[in-house]
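Consider the following assembly input.
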Amino acid sequence: MTLDAKIPSGPIQEKWDRHRFELKLVNPANRRKHDIIVVGTGLAGASAAASLGELGYNVKAFCYQDSARRAHSIAAQGGINAAKNYRNDGDSIYRLFYDTVKGGDFRAREANVYRLAQVSVDIIDQCVAQGVPFAREYGGLLDNRSFGGAQVSRTFYAKGQTGQQLLIGAYQALMRQVQEGRVELFTRHEMLDIVIVNGKARGIITRDLETGKIERFAADAVCLATGGYSNVFFLSTNAKNCNVTATYRAHKRGALFANPCYTQIHPTCIPQSGDHQSKLTLMSESLRNDGRVWVPKAVGDKRAPHEIPDSERDYYLERKYPAFGNLAPRDIASRAAKEQADSNHGVGPTGLGVYLDFRDAIKRESRKKIEEKYQNLFAIYHEITGEDAYQTPMRIYPAPHYTMGGLWVDYDLMSNVAGLFVLGEANFSDHGANRLGASALMQGLADGYFIAPYTLGGYIAGTKLDRVTTDHAAFGEVENEVRTKIDRFLSMKGKQTVDHFHRKLGKMMWDHCGMGRNAAGLGKLLVDIPALREEFWSDCRVVGTNEELNQTLERAGRVADYLEFAEMMVIDALERDESCGGHFREEHQIEGEAKRDDEDFCYVAAWEHQGVGKKPLVHKEPLVFENVKLAQRSYK
Amino acid sequence: MKFTLQIWRQASAKAPGKLVSYQVDDISADTSFLEMLDILNDTLEAKGESPVAFDSDCREGICGTCSCMIDGQAHGPGKGTTTCQIYMRDFADGATLVIEPFRAKAFPIIKDLVVDRAAFDRIIAAGGYISVNTGSAPDAHALAVPRDDAEEAFSAAQCIGCGACVAQCKNASAMLFVGAKVSHLALLPQGKPERTKRVIDMVAKMDAEGFGNCTNEAECEAACPKQISLTHIARLNRELLRAKILG
């Protein structure tokens, strides 16, 4: 198989315009003859479903939540980037493009990133028109702030609830299309498989989470916007039910999975407090605009933070990265925190923590100003820890947060399976090996509002699509497989709970495939994961039946997929024998920083499924940099 | 810490339900309320018993998925928090906690503590949006919005659609939910063109879904995890009156 990203020719500034012109169009009167399935209603899914509905297609949208408004995009706090240059501080589309490519440690596809920067400005316009209440200045115009990895202020925000406000905008646009009959919405429905007919994605099989009913849906194209796989670590900042099932099962049907080892460990999360914990909570990166990160200089200094004078504090980010200081990119800030903990400078009861201190900002700007900016974040911190961060510094530590890897897609956001489009975090395309803050919201909405509606139309107009209904034999076969799998879960009569296996897998992955990775640890995982998988099938127990709301059964399906998926992630991490962005191979570093190997690894690794327990086959898409010069990434 | 839990168990929408008593021991004070239920469910599953079904997702107080009444309070004790943000240190050791689903005619029970809140989606579909197709927006700075209006709109827009306002209200009224959306959009210049139609359609849908009326007791405001103010209900009433007069 040769991977053709189908990147349009010509100068990077002209590629998207040229491509949009070249894409075939579907006549407005013909659009209603085409059914499109969108799975997931986060920023990417909701915006795509709404926009496709507006264009006149028949859209069916699915989500596992009880409402389309609840997807985990809602939890994004800090903001959304756009190259508006409203601050007159030197921003431009080219600079956003450059920052994103560099931030991704030169492992993203240039053409995709440039297009992302281009449409970023339209996203802000669209959201404001929808009534998204972005922060404004006294003159009534939009406010901006800066975010990690950038020296300009290009981040638009709505207090600490930017993701929520953007998602509600997209959700309302979606509900408007539901009202108009253009979109049919299926909540509490989980996609359990895709159906491929004659090499084209033509439908999905779902389970109604309320009744257990297994249903078939046919369409001319399928869009997956089902998010990332951070919950492979069990503890992450993702919602409890976020899962890899939709993308992984598509992978098992032939879709290539690209760069699964690229995971983002976010530097500012509330440290874990005990074994009972079910998730980790993020503290927005925006806090690093005003908070200063430090640890005591002396090893094992147990004094309360206010008793430690400045001269005995190590503001290590400011010391190591004077140009970017506390706004160093996420991968770098996370590793620096780990370094402090590893050298016994960590703070808090477990030693797995560093301080994020607002003392100086409050002194400089007043407590009221800081409250205006971050009130809800300080409140969240107080609820979870019982501590008042206006009085004492926050304790923070890195946690799994976002996954840059995902299903491989071409420039049109279509996977190698014709008619299977993948949007948002679920695809791999724009963030390389590390995502910059405030870029996930941008990418989700770019894909859904401004890219998929064009490219999907181009696919439908340019493809001969036979009439396929759910009576087709392929639907019957896939449905049978889905049913067999469910029966298998329900017939397991072991002693352990599903969560027992998930926690165990998560701990293994965090220890050996988390912030630091090495060949020995990864090799160990390749023995331990299959063993755990075997144990799962022999010693797990799922109570209840299929024909009811059965949350244990839902989790069993997701954990079973993680137990297979994790192995591919580890193989990818092992074979990528270099460090880049969030993928830090301890064998490859220069003074603690990631050391890339452009000679041997300047490519996308896209894995083809070969069977459970069998090593997947790698396909390589070389990355060509025509505009940004490959360089050692420096924030010093 | 130790607790006695009285939990509403109901196998399905049509099945009869009842409170069932459970004991949980060895709960650390830093455990969240939902993690405590996770622990209970682990022990139930280990015994082959059916775990307690409850909704939750983000577990950081923003998605609006979690619900339930704890000792008669929607989202339990504590101001401005969702159920997932309640920690066991908020309760006395040895306490008995009564845990029930949100109760309202318009929120039918699905199972145990899980209810169907799709009525909220249908109210939004009736008009809770600004009709602007993708691509047709003017430049974001074409329209300045006074900061105070933007802030007030934001305070209404914070609603997470959890339904606590309805569950806490003796009339099962959805006025705070509807008021928040009507306020959010009516306060912004972008929302003005549809202002009249929006409020009429949303209120009509609210009534049709079987939610009760507001009798100004402010239980909703007290229960709201985002502390959305009752003034949005006052604005809803003004908007409705204005719309009816303008017709």
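The mean pLDDT of chain A is 96. Ask yourself how this observation constrains the way the partners meet.
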